[in-house]
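User: Run a structure prediction on this.
Assistant: Running it now.
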Amino acid sequence: MRYSFPENTLMKKTVLSAAVALLASLSMAGPLNVGDFAPGLKPAKWVKGDKAENLKDGKVRVVEFWATWCGPCKVSIPHLTELAKKYDGKIQFVGVSVWESKKDASDTSYYPVVDEFVKTMGDKMGYTVAVDGPDDKISNEWMRAAGERGIPAAFVIDGEGRIMWIGHPMDEELPKALDGVLAKTWDYKPIAEKRGKEKAEEIRIQDLQKPITEAYRAKKYAEANDALLKVLKTEPQLAPQLESLRYQILLNLDEAALDAWLKDDSAKGPNAYYSGARDILNDKSPRKVRDYDLALSLAEKLDGLIKNNAAVVNVLADAYAKKLRWDDAIAAQTRAVELTEKGGNAAATDVAKKKLEEFKQKKAGSGL
């Protein structure tokens, strides 16, 4: 599972919760599988490099989906650049920005954000780059149709326009697939069969979850909670997958029950810890009770689970600040600045630096 939290979450952005992603998955188009012909590739805008609108021109391509706010995407970009250099003249690499922050299906205000990101990356992003439109046409035709709900994600396309492989761009199998496709020895059929079984299981699970999500959308939170617990009784292995939805249900149903669940030491993934700490610390969240000791505990657990993530460290710094532990807050925020600088996000770095200065001023004013 990929965990990618947007930077500066408490100030300008909120993470697309797994609960919302789950609801979206129920209307997933498709299925699109390995072995099928790839959809068209006519993005709203080409930012950099040679266009790749004809996928049946004999060229092998890697089409990768990413976003400016996605931490793992920033890690994979230099890796893709190295692969692009290795296969220069043999394979075209195309990165398509998707799921950027926007108000509605006509809002193109994120285009300059992508342009600036690509410009800042420079040679570190040494391949063709495009942007999906605000209607999510490309991401719907590719990502949603293939059942891919996490980024980064890469599709290998042969010269005839057929999908040969789908997976994470850092997967060690990607170069093997590229070499095999170039040599015309790549057998995609076992991969297609495996993915077909996995997607069939996902559909079965989605059917189990429908009563939960339908009740949740109808704001029948008690009914949704009962349905969720019923599923977990027979399918306990789904607990991690239902974690974010369970959080949202309890947040709307019973904050005391939510806090008791968050304090429970039973295994939880990063989504619950992140959402819990974020909502307690953010004064604009719907939270009525703000237990900063709990927020700090969750932030520390999260920092232990997700290493070197600027958004996570930002939350940890805020938790320390709420407890007036200024030295710890400053140390954590210094880490956040370093991580945003390393990620190449100038805007996030500026925000992180301003917060760091605020913490230093507050420490000086506190006399601690």
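Residues 1-29 have pLDDT under 50 and may be disordered.
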